[in-house]
Amino acid sequence: MTTGLLAVIDMQRVFAEPDSPWATPRFTEAAAGVRRLLPAFGDRVAFTRFVAPAKPEGAWRAYYDRWSFALQPPDDRLWELADEFAQHTGRVVDATTFGKWTPELARLVGPEGRLVLAGVSTDCCVLSTALAAADAGIEVLVPADACAGADDDSHAKALQVMDLYRPLVRVTTVAELLEG
User: Fold this and answer.
1) Is 88 a residue whose pLDDT tops 90?
2) What b/e sequence results for 20-32 when a residue is b if at least 16 CB atoms lie within 10 Å of its CB, and e otherwise?
């Protein structure tokens, strides 16, 4: 079994469905990587969900002026996990921020833990979570083939940025994680 906590970032309908303004083009490829990882982590898996705040504050007001379709309550269909992950809802961490390094996720990882991040979007929520966890002293592993970005170029650039934080953040692959 692989050590640490697998945090599956935002594998939600709003990023999966092709007609969504936030559709992630390679969502299905990231989902395939996540499916390969799930058995290796057993019950040490948490899924996160990006959800809109009830009332946006600060710079988030301008963000939701641009993306007003997303101002829906947390139980709205667009925030649901994609169908293939709907049954894996044992641990779900909601956040109204890009970064999912919340007190709840930190508690699940533990102070000397290891965090494996997979999901979407590499160039937004995965990146934001990785850097915050690394700042907290957590070892972060990011399997590139279990993530997807807004586009291929943004995905590659985000992976390059995260890899600059070695040894705190290490970009890897699903195969490397499953071997180790």
Assistant:
1) no
2) bebebebbeebbe
